[in-house]
Task: structure prediction
Amino acid sequence: MKNTKSIVKVVASLALAFILSIAVFGCTRYEPISGDLPDGYEPTPEGKIKLQYYIAATEADKRSVNDWVSAFQRQYPDVQVNAEISNAGKNVIVSQIASKTVGDVFFLWETDVYNYASVQKALMPLDNYVLAYEIDTANIFSAIMDMGRVDGKLYMVMRDYNHIVLMYNRDLIKSAQLTDPIELEASNEWTWDKFKEYCSALTTLDEEADVQTVGCQMRLGYAPLYIPFLEGFGGKWYDKENKKVAFNSDPNVLQGVNEMVNFVASNVCKYIAVDTAGTTANAIKDTPSQNSFSSYNSATQVVFRDTEFPSFASNGKEYNSKVIDWDVVSMPHLPTPKVGTGATGFAVFNGTRNADAAAALCLSLYTEDGQRAYNGQEGGSVPNVKSLAEDYFWRVPFEDKAFNPEEGKNYYAFISFPEADTYGQVECVIPPEIAAIVKKYMQNVVPDAVNGVKTVDNTLAELEAEANEKWESIYTG
Result:
């Protein structure tokens, strides 16, 4: 029986080697690896692989990657990982993908996965390796797992779990004698309508007031912020099956966009313009309140501000340096609860010569050991493994409210109602050419409407017409 099993493994290994040799050394054209494994194949992670990580801006970033690699090599001592960690930027990877010289495993953004997998055919699907390495997919936050999929296949493994939350100045909440929003969240009263009430009560434009404040600042031209509004009133803004978007023609999507515009126009929100690559985002310039808000300090005069875990530490230290009591709370619940969610991660180059080891390294990020290693220090993030969500290793650098109710922070906000998670980037669900059109209009729809430059109906009608014409010309023309 043992000899038979050994023979099967040798034959299967030779078969996989043959597949890889065709993919890597094909004479006439480059063929991607399908990721299919022969029946009875047992992966054997060994040999050398190269890992490329190109956005290591801080020592903490480098430490996260190095700790992950070290943990992986302890589990697989026969694999040698050459980790190339730099802050060289994305263009290095783009050019190396084009020349087919990129590493076996490389970092990418969630906005890249559709393009790299479906358009450039540069990624190896990992589904069969998920089974071979017995990854418990039920233990991964489903939205994070889905973000790595294109046309039903898994190509990207996310390194963390990240959705939008609100940081807030608790001193200003107390001064206004309002109930702490964390208490409202606990009693299911932290709704969009309640949030609007709070922002109205917390906005002071009186120049003679001791402190001028504004209820919130929000990046409503930023996809992880506006996508929940497109869906949060029952709207469906894209239809991949029929290759169409619906903005002006779906009344529920239109309602969500009008909700954003009316909120900013009510002078209780400091609008933050967000630039998109290749275009310039408009600012709100024609209203006296927005002119005043532009000079308001984000820590001392703004009550709520949207953020993600990667900015949590730096923003928190800013509050502490100003001796401000602060905390974090989940996004308020829209009528159909939605929260913009995203993550960066890693993928396997489909020209790798060592698919077993490369897939093992990637997929180790969907294990408890991999997540503890990657996200167990400042510079890490929220683990994507559900069984670790309420653990404490990732809750740095501030104390946890569970241990220090008075001064600790509400880390629960970062893992709250995951069933409401939705894709935080338009490129995750529609082709990149269509996504670029959506982003071009959506980053300007609020300021254009508030400034009186263009109505919401006109902007969304133009968006819909241009996007659908482009989609039809590319995929059905």
Notes: Residues 2-161+343-388 form a domain with the D-Maltodextrin-Binding Protein; domain 2 fold (CATH 3.40.190.10). The first helix runs from residue 2 to 25.
